[in-house]
Design goal:
Oligomer: single chain
Family: Belongs to the phosphohexose mutase family.
Number of domains: 3
Keywords: Isomerase, Magnesium, Metal-binding, Phosphoprotein
Protein name: Phosphomannomutase/phosphoglucomutase
Organism: Candidatus Ornithospirochaeta avicola
CATH superfamily of the largest domain: Alpha-D-Glucose-1,6-Bisphosphate, subunit A, domain 3
Structural class: alpha/beta
CATH topology of the largest domain: Alpha-D-Glucose-1,6-Bisphosphate, Chain A, domain 3
Largest sheet: 7 strands, mixed
Radius of gyration: 22 Å
CATH architecture of the largest domain: 3-Layer(aba) Sandwich
Number of helices: 13
InterPro entries: A-D-PHexomutase_a/b/a-I, A-D-PHexomutase_a/b/a-I/II/III, A-D-PHexomutase_a/b/a-II, A-D-PHexomutase_a/b/a-III, A-D-PHexomutase_C, A-D-PHexomutase_C_sf, A-D-PHexomutase_CS, Alpha-D-phosphohexomutase_SF
Length: 446
């Protein structure tokens, strides 16, 4: 089935998957995860109610009980998985994808993700086998109280906001279910009503075009910081007081400053696209930086393995070992960053000053190429640059090829039909030179 991806089940609703597929997933899931009950939440997408109904019908027809959380952010469902000691949970969401998409994020004990290698392949096989209904249908229990428990938990991380001036874009998604109960009343909000048609912009703040309004709002309000959440609030991006988008891997460095001030050092997990600026900044704070694959399913397993304090990805996911069950939470990440910004303001400094002190190199950000012959293009790049005596080649998610004064990562997207490039060099001139070289090679495979 086209909707089964590396990290979750996701696709265009009624094209890549439908109610019958979701029902079968619900019927098979309790057996796969040996779960006596399944916690279920959903986002605000227009198709989420019918998916919710089909999923619950499948789960209860298996004889299993459903704890129905109702409307939820994805991290709220992770929290529920731990809070309820569930062996299975499902969040109905397509996260940051356009409105016609939807999906299922499945977790098991301790909010461990169920990905391609940890259950999704087996689940797909089970869907295509002869599944049997139970003699006694399971019941549905109201678990909407999870929202209050989650808010109570997050409030323990809320800083003294003081006179901090904050602008927030909720992207018409799920974050407004939570943040208004945690952030100070003085916050200025845009797009803070639920609307699964996402009328103002797609719920993907990684694309800077979707951040234009919060940039303007931050400057107009003379805010110290702008915050924008994605559709299901597992990701968050930031705007400085000058209206500049802060590349998410630099936010990982800011989180390092938060934990450093708490007296914590140790391992930090970053993905293969992460800037040397961030890596060097974290190392200067005493952290050991570990580079790993892109994707929440990989990150959540690795952060446990290396016992990392926290982790961050270029996509705006931030993972917390001790503070959030090895999972990502956009709202928790925003509270920690706001704590740093509040401290900066008290000391007469600004967010832009901190960001400028972190950045040492010229970086392209993530550049996308839509092409069919992705493997051929990657192979060609590897052949060319392997001959130039790189310092090292990391090969566990595409390739990160490092030279003394520059490096690049080339990889296939796990969720979209793109080849993705990130390139960084000691200055803009060198960055543009190598970017042009690489783009010429890639264009031969368009």
């Amino acid at each position: 089935m086209n909707a089964f991806k590396a990290y979750d089940i996701r696709g265009i609703w009624n094209k890549d998957f439908n109610c019958n597929d979701v029902y079968k997933i619900g019927l098979a899931l309790p057996s796969l995860l040996e779960a006596p009950f399944v916690a279920v939440g959903r986002d605000v997408r227009l198709s989420s109610p019918e998916i919710h109904e089909a999923l619950i019908n499948g789960i209860t027809d298996s004889g299993c009980t459903v704890y129905d959380i109702g409307l939820a952010t994805t991290p709220m469902v992770y929290f529920a998985t731990v809070f309820l000691k569930a062996k299975a949970s499902v969040q109905i969401t397509a996260s940051h994808n356009p409105k016609e998409y939807n999906g299922l994020k499945i977790s098991t004990t301790d909010a461990l993700p169920v990905g391609k290698d940890t259950g999704l392949l087996e689940l797909e096989k089970m869907m295509n086998s002869s599944l049997q209904k139970a003699e006694i249908k399971g019941e549905v229990k109201d678990a909407s109280y999870i929202r209050d428990e989650y808010i109570k938990y997050l409030k323990t991380f809320a800083p003294d906001f003081g006179e901090l001036n904050i602008s927030v874009d909720c992207s018409n998604g799920m974050s407004s279910l939570i943040v208004k109960d945690i952030l100070p009343p003085s916050c200025r909000y845009i797009y803070d009503t639920f609307d699964g048609s996402f009328p103002h912009h797609e719920p993907n703040p990684l694309e800077e075009k979707n951040c234009e309004d919060i940039k303007k709002e931050t400057v107009r309000n003379k805010s110290d910081v702008g915050v924008i959440y994605d559709g299901d609030a597992d990701r968050v991006m930031f705007i400085d007081e000058k209206g500049r988008f802060i590349q998410p891997d630099y936010v990982t460095a800011i989180l390092g400053l938060y934990y450093n001030k708490k007296g914590l050092t140790g391992n930090v997990l970053v993905d293969i696209r992460t800037s040397r600026s961030t890596i060097e900044f974290l190392e200067s704070l005493g952290f050991n930086v570990h580079i790993w694959k892109v994707g929440h399913a990989y990150a959540k397993l690795k952060i446990r393995e290396i016992d990392a304090v926290f982790g961050g990805e270029l996509a705006g996911h931030y993972y917390f070992r001790r503070d959030f069950f090895n999972c990502d939470s956009g709202i928790l990440a925003s509270l920690l960053v706001l704590s740093v910004v509040a401290d900066l303001k008290k000391n007469g400094s600004k967010l832009s000053d901190l960001v400028d002190s972190i950045i040492k190199y010229s970086n392209t950000g993530e550049v996308n190429f839509r092409l069919e012959r992705k493997d051929d293009a990657i192979k060609a790049l590897l052949e060319v640059y392997r001959k130039e005596n790189p310092l090292r080649i990391l090969d566990f998610d595409g390739y990160r090829i490092e030279f003394d004064s520059w490096w690049f990562n080339i990889r296939k997207s796990n969720t979209e039909p793109y080849l993705r490039l990130v390139l960084e060099a000691k200055d803009e001139e060198e960055m543009l030179k190598h970017r042009k070289e690489i783009e010429e090679i890639i264009k031969a495979y368009l």
